[in-house]
Amino acid sequence: MKRSLFIVTILVFSFYALQAQITSPGANATDVTQYPVFPETDDIFIFCSNDSSAEVGALTATTALSGTKNWLWEKYDETAGAFDLQYQETTDAASSQISALADGCYRITITQGATTEVDRAWVFNNWMYAGGEVAVSDCEHFVMNGEMKSAVLTYYDLSSNAPLFVNKDVQVEWLENGDRIASVINLTVYDPPAENTNYTLRVYDKFDCDAQATVLYESIVAKASFTANPMSGEAPLEVTFTNNSENATAGYYEWFFYRDLDAIKLDAEGTENPVDSIDFVAYDDAPVYTYENSGTYMVRLVSKHLSDTLTCADTAYMEDYIVVDTSFIAVPNVFTPNGDGVNDEFVVQFWSMQSIEISIFNRWGKRVHYWKSGDVRGFDDAYIETVWDGRIMGGRYASPGVYYYDVVGHGRDGEKRKKHGFVHLFRNKD
């Protein structure tokens, strides 16, 4: 009978011992011990911090016992291999809290008469540090050296006192505009940006604790970029170049205007020596250039950034060639100068012409219209002067009938152009 009573007493004690519980609502993460000898497991509460001296751990013990009871908090001393008093109180509350805790194992013992409840938990102030600087910077690349430190989370087997370590799986990453660009501590960036750029070194672990450091790269490079408008048309073709270069020093631009592509190829066919492909070089920030002759042309821009120690240059080419059209002449075979606003003028169309001469004769060989220019600056600029309005040399109306035209000239592609034939003049009235 005494033996049975003893067994019941042990069972009751075990039942109550299970009721004490340590929690930590403010913890950032949790883990569980893996003691090799001690037969139980304890919770590990992780508190993230960026201050190596901060003690932010906090624990709360709860019990189902009602009435007055004694709360005894102890902290494990790994040197002695025993628990030392940390805090004690007697209260009828259902919970007890301790805070501002250093790393270590804490044990709560709740006593009420013959009933005792016990629980343990480990607390770690998991601090991290990140730092970095630009160590090398030149025209081709720059190097950012990172620095990281992290708390080592050491706990102890409560039987053997052997040290054990929490696996944090610490990793690093470099971020640019929130996007990961590398996972190394020291980062080399090739093709540096042409603007001052912030990079972030982030150190983090599996508990989502992290530390970040911002490193400012101060750009010493330029990015050459430009557009040309228009990209095609008749000669002479005036092209405006818009300089979109980034971080370049004003006044330090070089524009290389290439010769006609076909001319370069033709020169290259007759020699094994290098062929000079550059027509001329301009140093304007944003030039306007007139292509006088037909052809296919490339342009290259070199933009430079001058710093205290280096001059960094970048080169940009056009994605497409500028195409200056070949010459041609087109002539209509009929027109009706009757004042209705439709087809009232005899218009000789010409494109990329250097010179042109237009003559119109009646059936008896008398010239009734004439225009000539040795420096044609484009059809749009000249056609108003060249048109025949159906009047004899600008005077009285010409009679309806058949007239003969003769158009000759030289194109800006070096070709001689000519057109001749008949045109019919129809008119409702003289």
UniProtKB/TrEMBL annotation:
The keyword Membrane appears for this protein: no
Annotated keywords: Signal
Pfam families named in the record: CHU_C
Position of the signal peptide: 1-19
Signal keyword on record: yes
Origin: domain of life: Bacteria
Protein name (database record): Gliding motility-associated C-terminal domain-containing protein
